[in-house]
Specification:
This protein is of the alpha+beta class. It has 4 helices and 3 strands, in the order αβααββα. The protein has helices spanning 7-18, 23-33, 42-54, 78-104; strands at 21-22, 58-66, 69-76. The protein has a 3-stranded antiparallel sheet with strand order 1-3-2.
Length: 121
């Protein structure tokens, strides 16, 4: 995959890097990883999982019946692991570049800060 991952996809893969999770577990983990910024609806999540399974980035780990309903657990595939690692490294390099530029930039004076005239201390 040559293009950067969309944030929800990145967070789904990140959530699955820890352990296999079922749908609602993934929704909660993505919310936690994003500090609540990304809130996946079930339809959105399951559509994304179908695409990730089709792309061989995620695999079905197991299925179980809970309260008469099928619960499917997903895990990160080896290809998903490699893609997540590559995307994380790409983002890390971007963060390093931005951090270095921000450090080089001199801070702007705060509004209302008195300026000293030459020679005064």
């Amino acid at each position: 995959m040559d293009t950067p991952l969309r944030e929800p996809t990145y967070l789904i893969l990140t959530a699955l890097a820890g352990e296999p999770l079922h749908g609602y577990g993934l929704i909660g983990e993505v919310a936690a990883l994003s500090d609540g910024r990304v809130s996946l609806r079930p339809g959105t999540l399951y559509g994304a999982l179908d695409r990730l399974v089709d792309a061989a980035l995620v695999e079905v780990d197991r299925e179980e019946v809970v309260d008469g309903r099928l619960r499917r657990y997903y895990r990160l595939s080896p290809g998903g692991h490699d893609l997540l690692a590559a995307e994380t490294e790409r983002m890390r390099r971007n963060v390093e570049a931005a951090t270095a530029r921000l450090r080089r930039r001199s801070p702007a004076p705060k509004p209302g800060t008195p300026r000293l005239a030459g020679g005064l201390a």
